[in-house]
Amino acid sequence: MGAEANGSSASLNFLIYGRTGWIGGILGKLCESQRIPYTYGSGRLEDRRSLIFDLDSVKPSHVFNAAGVTGRPNVDWCESHKVETIRTNVVGTLTLADVCRERGLVLINYATGCIFEYDSDHPLGSGLGFKEEDTPNFTGSYYSKTKAMVEELLKNYENVCTLRVRMPISSDLSNPRNFITKIARYEKVVDIPNSMTILDELLPISIEMAKRNLTGIWNFTNPGVVSHNEVLALYREFIDPSFTWKNFTLEEQAKVIVAARSNNELDATKLKTEFPELLSIKESLVKFVFEPNKKA
């Protein structure tokens, strides 16, 4: 359970799913720092009765879903565990949205923006990003397929706020799920500009979105794109001057992964309009990730 509420957060009481997950863990710490009471849900997403028990016992003001199957060590796991992936990512998420709707509760759902890939209408380097209302066009991985399925169904739930996270990054460079930590450990990386999500900046914004009872689909990334090489160059500049890396092509990458990976730019205009203070991806990387970790 989180800290006692102060005056400004007196009416807030968050129920969070995803206690053992990366985003779920950060959310708990943010609630403590903001003195927002919170509880981690103990029910399984696909078990409706257990969710109802959580809601009846916690009586939350808002529900956050940071639970889901991404696969370990990566999304390739989902290719050979399709039923398990459906059970959590589709059945579970829909069940949670449904029980929240019955009680008139806003559900903040951390989804993915890895449901698009550059195409003729959104070419690489054009600055033309996919908007919230665009239809997903990436089916290269089973993980992304299930996420696109559930996003389409959740459009019918007026109580759901869907946040499309992409290639999440945080200032915790020891976390194996951190995009920077991942690519710094790879033998070779592709070099493609992508939209990304700086959690240190955006997760506090998601709490603010709950306070404003915002719903619908949101591209939950920092404005603009950054390439793998640009990220690693910053890593070398701020963290390890001796760091080196090698590139390879998408064709070469395809030989060492089971499922294809999504590369895209998401248009963050809607989020930037609601939160004008939102930094561009490169500014956010320096301010929230590299400056705090800078080696003297």
Automatic annotation (TrEMBL):
Pfam families: RmlD_sub_bind. One of its GO terms (cellular component) is methionine adenosyltransferase complex. It comes from the Eukaryota. InterPro entries: dTDP_dehydrorham_reduct, NAD(P)-bd_dom_sf, RmlD-like-bd. GO terms for molecular function: isomerase activity; methionine adenosyltransferase regulator activity; oxidoreductase activity. Pathway: Carbohydrate biosynthesis. SUPFAM superfamilies: NAD(P)-binding Rossmann-fold domains. Gene3D superfamilies: NAD(P)-binding Rossmann-like Domain. GO terms for biological process: S-adenosylmethionine biosynthetic process; UDP-rhamnose biosynthetic process. PANTHER family: DTDP-4-DEHYDRORHAMNOSE REDUCTASE (PTHR10491), METHIONINE ADENOSYLTRANSFERASE 2 SUBUNIT BETA (PTHR10491:SF4). This is RmlD-like substrate binding domain-containing protein.
